[in-house]
Write a structure and sequence with these properties.
The chain has six helices and 13 strands. The chain is α+β, with helices and mostly antiparallel strands and 256 residues long. The model has no long low-confidence stretch (mean pLDDT 91). The structure holds a DNA duplex (16 and 16 nucleotides).
DNA sequence: ATTGTGGCCTGCCCGC
DNA sequence: TGCGGGCAGGCCACAA
């Protein structure tokens, strides 16, 4: 989500431009029943009006359809040969033409393209946004409490559920819960008022500071988030588990 | 409805 | 030096 917000700001450069040509060489990357020809027809000649972001979904509004871009973990956005992020943790720093999954060329020059080695992202027209929860960057304490309330699922699984809170990924959730000192395996609905409030405070602060720093891979836990890693706060051996289907690192000493 | 599981994409890195 | 296998995260289909 942090990365996607940086991409959104980069994509803002395209506002006011007109689409001249669309290249979509990878049919697998096109979602929602569109193909290279139909997406080109739908977008060519259109003017980019605005950009938005909901969770990990980047929306590019035009005077025609809205273009929806998803990046998975390995996708990068490049606009006019400028990348918002130089290196992604799980992607190589390389930018090979064969990994260009989707390119929009603008009238008068310039382009917007998605480069994704592992094809984890995707492109969609007028994506359905009704199933996304409150965005993590703006969620209120009451909104977070409502998202967690009366759920027996592990707290981490609930936070990763995009229909409850939109925008949190695996690394970010580990970082937030580590800072908040809460065990990711706790039932989401079992938090006290004080814990839920503490979680909300750390959630907002973590997202904001990592956004300012430039990536979710820059968290204080990240360097230790590997087998045999020690807690940067108190030196305890970190616990490595699978929670919510995701590899999870947490400190058994201060996350309770 | 809620919760959990497994598969998919492909590059990279480890051990042999 | 090459190769096989495991791993990475987001999302989706599917099961109970």
């Amino acid at each position: 989500m942090i990365e996607v917000e940086l991409y959104r700001r980069l994509a803002d450069r395209a506002v006011g431009r007109h689409v001249a040509q669309v290249e979509a060489p990878d049919g697998w990357f096109l979602k929602g029943g569109i193909d290279a020809a139909s997406v080109a027809t739908a977008l060519e000649g259109r003017e980019v009006l605005a950009t938005r972001r909901i969770g990990k979904l980047l929306l590019v509004d035009t005077d025609g359809p809205t273009l929806g871009l998803r990046f998975g973990m390995t996708g990068r956005l490049i606009v006019d040969d400028t990348a918002a992020i130089d290196v992604l943790e799980y992607a190589s720093g390389r930018d090979e033409a064969r990994w260009d999954r989707f390119t929009v060329r603008f009238a008068g020059g310039g382009l917007l393209r998605v480069n994704d080695p592992r094809r984890l992202g995707g492109v969609e027209l007028d994506p359905d946004t009704t199933r996304l929860g409150h965005d993590a960057l703006s969620i209120t304490a009451a909104g977070l409490r409502a998202a967690l309330r009366s759920s027996a699922a592990p707290l981490k699984a609930r936070l990763l559920d995009q229909a409850r809170v939109a925008g949190l990924g695996n690394l970010l959730v580990d970082e937030i819960l580590w800072r908040a000192g809460i065990d990711p395996a706790r039932p989401a609905g079992g938090l006290t008022e004080a814990e839920a409030s503490r979680l909300h405070r750390h959630l907002r602060a973590t997202v904001r500071s990592l956004l300012a720093d430039g990536g979710s891979h820059l968290g204080r836990l990240q360097a230790s988030r590997l087998r045999g890693g020690l807690c940067p706060k108190d030196g305890a051996a970190l616990l490595r588990r699978t929670i919510g289907g995701r590899t999870t690192y947490s400190c058994p000493r201060h996350q309770t």
